[in-house]
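Structure first, sequence second, as always.
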């Protein structure tokens, strides 16, 4: 069996962590008897700065031949925030209609959680984040203003670069952005969440929203949730408002099984989820279109200040690689990776700085491969 898998290492630490992910997947291939052909794509800041190109229609079509893309991270301080994220990452998610953003939140043994007295069995659930609608659709505008001053200020603050702000502003300027939930869009992702709950024998699905305030869009979300829930009588259901969910994540994470959430709330909630499972260095994600081209990546960004230092934690990316293999039907291979990650973390000898160690990125990849080979 040969799998052809496009890789987009991207910016910052992306290439380093993807290198480890490839190493581990290749080792699984040896053990399970399949081959991998990696197809490299150089989307990211360097290419953008050199040629002004983000990603072309042709390349998108080409990528559409494959079932799963392996992505590192995008974002670079030399490029205005949003350009690479919107122009590449969100472009891919939208073009391939990857309507599910699957983000497991699982505390593994040997990993410290900031939540006092919680153990691995208490933090073990899955967030299904809607990935193509809500406030991410990109409809909005700015009016009556010398528009980009705020943006420039933001950049100056974020990256501490110094330049003059001599652009005219106007005090009655407005900016607005519209969020959309569609019946079909809600239905497909909520159905996915219920099917997942059934498949994984996780017998509770929690819907997240803010239907008490954003009542138009999220009442539709709720209505669809109830309709779908009726078809799954064996699964318990409930709703949490997003603010309450943030509280429960910290207070009683053991309550949750499968969570299904609109896009923006899911974005925020899964960073919180990553923290309670031990940090962004350990949090993987999958952008899934069950009938098309999906994409697997760590939740973390490109961490420019660590670029090229071989120090960041590659486990989120390696774990995303396991999700990729599971998506391709290589369940046993996926399990091998997860078990090896668990072994390495439990042992605690090889770990990167974020987990209190001083191992290199590449040493973590090597150790995971070694553990897989020992089994
Ligand atoms: C994520 C990221 C992205 C998002 C950004 C980089 C566009 O934060 O994958 O969670 O908002 O979805
Ligand atoms: Mn995010």
């Amino acid at each position: 069996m040969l799998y052809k898998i496009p890789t987009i290492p991207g910016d910052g630490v992306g290439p380093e962590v993807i290198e480890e992910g490839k190493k581990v997947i290749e080792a699984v291939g040896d053990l399970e008897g399949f081959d991998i052909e990696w197809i490299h794509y150089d989307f990211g800041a360097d290419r953008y700065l050199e040629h002004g190109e983000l990603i072309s229609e042709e390349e998108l079509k080409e990528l559409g031949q494959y079932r799963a893309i392996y992505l590192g991270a995008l974002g670079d301080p030399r490029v205005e925030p949003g350009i690479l994220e919107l122009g590449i990452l969100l472009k891919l998610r939208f073009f391939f209609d990857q309507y599910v953003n699957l983000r497991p939140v699982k505390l593994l043994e040997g990993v410290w959680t900031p939540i006092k007295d919680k153990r691995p069995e208490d933090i073990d659930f899955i967030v299904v984040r809607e990935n193509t609608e809500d406030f991410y659709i990109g409809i909005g505008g700015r009016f009556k203003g010398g528009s980009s001053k705020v943006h420039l200020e933001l950049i100056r603050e974020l990256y501490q670069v110094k330049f003059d702000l001599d652009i005219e502003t106007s005090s009655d300027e407005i900016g607005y952005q519209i969020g959309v939930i569609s019946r079909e869009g809600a239905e497909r992702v909520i159905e996915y969440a219920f099917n997942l709950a059934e498949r994984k024998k996780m017998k509770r699905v929690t819907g997240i929203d803010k239907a008490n305030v954003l009542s138009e869009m999220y009442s539709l979300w709720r209505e669809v949730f109830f309709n779908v829930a009726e078809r799954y009588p064996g699964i318990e259901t409930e709703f949490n408002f997003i603010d309450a969910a943030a509280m429960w994540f910290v207070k009683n994470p053991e309550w949750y099984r499968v969570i299904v959430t609109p896009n923006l709330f899911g974005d925020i909630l899964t960073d919180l989820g990553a923290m309670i499972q031990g940090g962004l260095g350990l949090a993987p994600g999958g952008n899934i279109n069950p009938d098309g081209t999906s994409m697997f990546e760590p939740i973390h960004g490109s961490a420019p200040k660590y670029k090229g230092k071989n120090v960041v934690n590659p486990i989120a990316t390696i774990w995303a690689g396991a999700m990729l293999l599971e998506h391709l039907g290589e369940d046993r291979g996926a399990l091998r990776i997860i078990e090896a990650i668990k072994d390495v973390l439990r042992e605690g000898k090889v770990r990167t700085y974020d987990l209190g160690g001083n191992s290199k990125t590449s040493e973590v990849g090597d150790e995971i491969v070694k553990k897989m080979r020992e089994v």
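Margin note: The chain has three domains: 1-104+283-375, 113-133+183-277, 135-180.
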